[in-house]
# Entry
Amino acid sequence: MTKQNRIIVIVSIVSLWLLLPACSGNNTAMIRNSPGYDRLTENKVLSMNVVHEQLNDLTLLGIIDKALIFRNNTDNSLLYYSELSDRQDIEVDLDQKTIRSYPLQNGLLLTDSLSKGSYLLTIENTFPKTERLPDFPIDISDSQISIIENNGVLFLGTSIRDTLMVYSLKRHGAPVNQWEILTHTGLGSDNGFLMSVQSNGTDNCLYVFIKGNGILCYNLRLDHWTRKEIDTQPIDQTSSAFGKGAAHIIFPHNDGHAIQLFNTVTDTFFEMQVNPAEGVFMGVQVSNNQVSTVYYDESGQSLELRNLSIEKVKNGFSAIDIIVLILYFGVLVFIGYYFSKRQKNSDDYFRGGQRIPWWAAGLSLFGTALSAITFMAIPAKAFATNWSYMLFNGGILMVAPIIMFVFIPFFRKLNITTAYEYLEVRFNSLIRVVCSLAFIVFQIGRMGIILLLPAIAINVVTGFDIFLCIILMGVFSIIYTRMGGIEAVVWTDALQVVILLGGALYAIFHIVAQIPGGWTETISVAFSNGKMSFGSTVFDLSDSTMWTVLIATFFTNLTTYGTDQSMVQRYLTTSSQKAARKSIMTNALLVIPSTLIFFFIGTALFVYYKYNPAHATPILDSNDAIFPWYIYTRLPVGIVGLLIAGIFSAAMSTLSGSMNSVATAYVVDIRPKLMRKKPAADLKEARRATLIAGALSLCFAILMATWNISSLWDEFNKILGLILGSMGGLFLLGMVTRKANAPGALIGMAVSIAVQIVVANYTPVHLLLYTTVGFITCFVVGYLASYFFKTNKTTV
# Structure
C-alpha cells in the first residue's frame, strides 16, 4: 500500500469514528410505535413580581416578545411590564375602555370599537414603541374581524352581510401606505372565523377557517378562492392561528392546555396537549409565531410567562443501523482502493480505458442524474401536489434517439475526452474554454448545494450535525473518486443505484402496509384527492401544465444528456459506439420505473399521513424532508441505516461523477491553454484536480451552512444557468448545420442569455421553460448570424 493510500485509509477511519457519537447520541427517548414523534412542552421564559391586589385591576391585552401588555381597569390606562425594565405607561389615541388587541408576528395591533384608528405596538431596545397605522377602510365596531401579519403585510378580514372582505396593508416599501381591497368571497356563516397564511404545498395561501362551516383558501399567486368542506369543530375553543413549518397551522386552545394543528397538505386536524405547571391561568396568545401563556404564581406573588414549544422526540440509531452505515462507507473506500491499482494514465482515469461494460455505464448515468435532491424532492413533490412533474423525468425517452444517433456518433468519431473538445474542432478554442469554464464553476457550486440540502434534511430529521453530514459525504466521495478515477465512480454508482432502488421499493411496501385497506385504499384515497393527476391539459406556458412540462423536459434533457460533461463522459468509457447507445437506453429504461417508484412513495406518504396526522411533524421547514422523516421514525432497525445510507449514496453518486468530470474538463480543456502539456504528469494532475474540486465544493457547502446564504446559490444558479441553457442549442447548431460558424455561435449565445433574462424578469413564462427559450434562441440566432460571416471549413 502506497503512502498516499495509507493516509486515505487513516482519514476514512477517523471519519467513521466521528460517525459513532453522532449516531449513538440520539438514543432513546421514545419507542418507535408510539402515537406521535413530537411532544408539547411548557417552558418558563420570565417571572415578574406583582402583588395580588394589583393583579385584580389588570386585564391582559397581549404579549410582545418577553413583555406583557395590560389595561388597568381602574383608570383604563395601558401598562407595559417587562423583566428588563420598570412598569411603563403606553400612550395611544384610542378609547381605552373599548380597546381591542390582535397579535401580529412581531407586535400587537391595538384598536377600539368607536373609531377606525389603530396602532402597532412593538418593542425596541426593551422599550415599547407605538406606530400609528392608516385608518381601517370600514367601520369595524359591529363587525367580526380577523387581523394577521405575514412577511410585513397585514391582512384584515371582515364579514359584511355574509360576504368576506379581505384588505391588505404593506407596512414597508409600499408606494401608498394605505389599506387596499385584496379580494372578497361568500362566507356562508356568521359563526366567526380565523385567518392564517401557509403554503398549500406549492403556493402561499390565505386560509380562512369558518367555525362550524368549512375552510376557504385564497391562493395569493393565482388570485383564486377554493372551499374545502372540512369539519372545523376542533377550533371551536381557539381564538388565534399562525403558520408553522412547511405545512401546518397552529391554533392555541383558550385554556392554554393544548393546541390544534391543521396540515394544509393532507387537510387534517390533530391535537397536542400539555400538563401545565401550577398557577392561576390568565391568558394565552400567539407571540413571535409561538404560543405564550401567562400564569400567576400565588406562592411567589409573581407573573410567569411560559412558552408552549413543539419538540422532536428522538429515537436514535440502533447498533445495527450504525454498522450498516459503517459498512457502506467502508465498501466505497475499498472500491476506490481496488480500482486505484488499474489507473496507469489519464485515459484510464478519465475514460476507464474504455473497458467499462455498457450496463454499468448505464447504471452510472442513472445514478448521476438521481441526486439526493431528487431522492427527497420527488416524493415531496408528489406528497404536496400530484404527478404532473412525472412527465419531466420521463423526458429522457423523448431525447434518447437524438442522443444515440446524433450526439454519440460525433463524440465517438472524434475520440475525444470532453464534450467541449468538439466545440473547438467545430468552432474555435474561445467557445470551448468559455463553455468548459462555465461547466466547472457551475458543477463546483452544484456539488456544494448537493452536499448541503440533504445534510439539512438529515439534520432536521435525525439530529445529526449538519457539518458532520457534509464532511462524511464530501470526504468519502473525494477519497474513492481520487483513488479510482472514473472506474471507481461508475462501479460505486452502480452499487448506489441498487441501494437506492432497493430501499425505495421496501419503503413503498412498508408504507402501504401501515395504511388500513392496503393497496386498494391507498390508490382510492390518492385518486379521490387528485394526487395521481398529470395536471391540466390547458395550453398555458405560464403554469406547470402537461404541455409546459412536456416541452420543457424535451429541451432540458437534450441539454443535460447531450452537453453535460458528467453525462457525456459515460458514453466515452464504453468499448464501442454500440455499447454507448446501450448505456443511454439502459438509463432511459431505468428512469421510468424509478420515477414511478419515487412518485408513488410521495403519494403513499400523503395517504399515510392523512390517516395518521399526528405522525406528520410541524418542525419540518420544508416538505423535502418528509420521506427522510418517515424513514427515521417508522422503518425497522437496520433498514433505517440502509435508507439513510441511500440518501448519502444519492448525493455521493452525483458528487463523484461531478468531481471526476470537473477534473477532466480542467486537465483536458483548460490546463493545456495555460501551460505546455506534460503527458507524464496528467494522472497526477488529474488526481490533484479531483481533490481541489472536491475540497472547493466541500468548503462552499460549509460556507452556506455557516452563513445561511442559500439565496446566494439561487442567484448563482440563475446566472450560470443562462450560459448552460444556451449550450444545448450551441451543440446542436454545430452538429446539424454546415453554415454555422464561430462568430455566429458567439452571437447566438450572447442573444440567448439576453433573451432568457428578459423572459425571466418581464414575462409570465414558467421557469421550467427558461432552458427551452435559451436553447431555441441560441440555435436560431446563431444560425442566422452565421450568414453574415465567412463559414469555417470543418471536417465534422
Observations:
- The chain has three domains: 3-34+315-708, 56-276, 711-796.
- The longest helix spans residues 466-513.
